[in-house]
Amino acid sequence: MSTEKIYFFGSPWNGPDWLKNASQSVGTLNGVPGDKYHKAWAHYFSKFIEAYELEGIPIWGITTQNEYSQVRDFEGLFYTTEQLADFIRIDLGPELRKNHPLVKIMI
Predict the structure, then answer these.
(1) What are the helix (H) ranges across the chain?
(2) Which of 38, 57, 79, 82 is the most exposed place for a label (fewest CB within 10 A)?
């Protein structure tokens, strides 16, 4: 029996269309950091982590988006560096500190 530890992390490819400012599958988050859209997206991360933990899979870390600044020609959620920093500082960071303080945020 192996005693090696496996570290799991998650990275979303895209968010729900209703959270984005575009009717297509490419866009940025609606609103501004701290509003209902940003809070809802941060809560999605928390619920994802909870769901995996309930199945016995602890999440070690997350990224906020796969290729966050490259999403232009394919489905995804686009952030500028400033938008991403604000989302983490105002919404995602506090959500994870409150509900999942050991989960790392990787960029």
Answers:
(1) 36-54, 81-86, 93-99
(2) 82
